[in-house]
């Protein structure tokens, strides 16, 4: 809770100082401490309850999830892990420690 | 007299102009139905398979969804196809059993391929009926999957698209030969 308050304070201060554009206009970049273009995200695999793969990215404050499809548009169900499991480097794209 | 006519005509033209403008404005307003929305322009993230996703960062929240065509086909810069076997080198016409030479080639392929899972997809040219070709491509894909599993490969899906997913025009013999194929997708 302390951490969340701290982050909120820093965010408010940054907004006051005009460091960030709020409401955020450019949705294609992550302007936060780990400044980067969104194309650099590192993904892992989350296996959904059906057993099919989803790309999962934990990018510090933001989290992303998107279907893994083959070139015909069918879900990829590789069986790489049991359902409800996440594997791979999905937390490695950001240097920000993630308490959750 | 002349000036009076001029004035009348002028006033008339003026009101016509005003009316036209008003009409134009009202029709313009009717056309531009007001849509209340916030501008959300995504960028593209390319997944490890080489396929595109729309991605947006809204400050705190992040959003992502696959980039697909209106037909639901993913937009990929490269796919995870790791082998395309010419059907002519595995099967004889209309058949789905694999020749001994074809068996050897497939075994070699699946022994050396490094993938956690394989998807086998059969295709035909456009001779014979669509329904027949759907069946033939499925039978051929199943034959390939059997060889793959015999050497320990993890086959997770076997499909046949018949003549529905050509990679070349079926107007020439060379094009048809290209379309007769079994694709192997490597899931890494």
Account of the 3D structure:
- The complex is a heterodimer of chains A (100) and B (188).
- Chain A is an alpha+beta fold and 100 residues long.
- Chain A is 15% helix and 24% strand.
- Chain A has one domain.
- Helices cover 38% and strands 22% of the residues of chain B.
- Chain B has a four-stranded mixed sheet with strand order 4-7-5-6.
- In chain B, helix 3 (130-150) links the parallel strand 5 and strand 6.
- In chain B, helix 2 packs across helix 3.
- The A-B interface holds A 20, 22-30, 37-39, 41, 43, 53, 55, 57, 59, 61-74, 76-80 and B 38-49, 51, 53, 55-66, 68, 71-74, 76, 79-81, 116-117, 119, 121, 154, 156-157, 159, 161, 165, 185, 187.
Strand order within the widest sheet of chain B?
4-7-5-6
Which range best describes the helical content of chain A: under 10%, 10-25%, 25-40%, 40-55%, 55-70% or over 70%?
10-25%
Question: What is the string of helix and strand elements of chain A?
Answer: HEEEEEE
Mean pLDDT of chain A: 72
Rg of chain B to the nearest angstrom?
31 Å
Derived from helix and strand composition plus strand pairing, the structural class of chain A reads alpha+beta
Q: Main beta sheet of chain B, described?
A: 4 strands, mixed
Structural class, from helix and strand content of chain B?
Answer: alpha+beta
Q: Which sequence of SSEs, written as H and E, runs from N to C of chain B?
A: HEEEEHEHEHE
Instruction: Indicate the low-confidence ranges of chain B by residue numbers.
Output: 19-24
Distance between the termini of chain A: 11 Å
Count of DSSP helices of chain B? 4
> How are the strands of the largest sheet of chain A arranged?
5-4-3-6
The total count of strands of chain A amounts to 6
How large is the share of residues in beta strands of chain B?
15-25%
Major sheet description of chain A? 4 strands, antiparallel
- Domain unit count of chain A: 1
List low-pLDDT spans of chain A.
14-20, 95-100
Shape of chain B: globular
The largest interface is: A-B, 38 and 47 residues
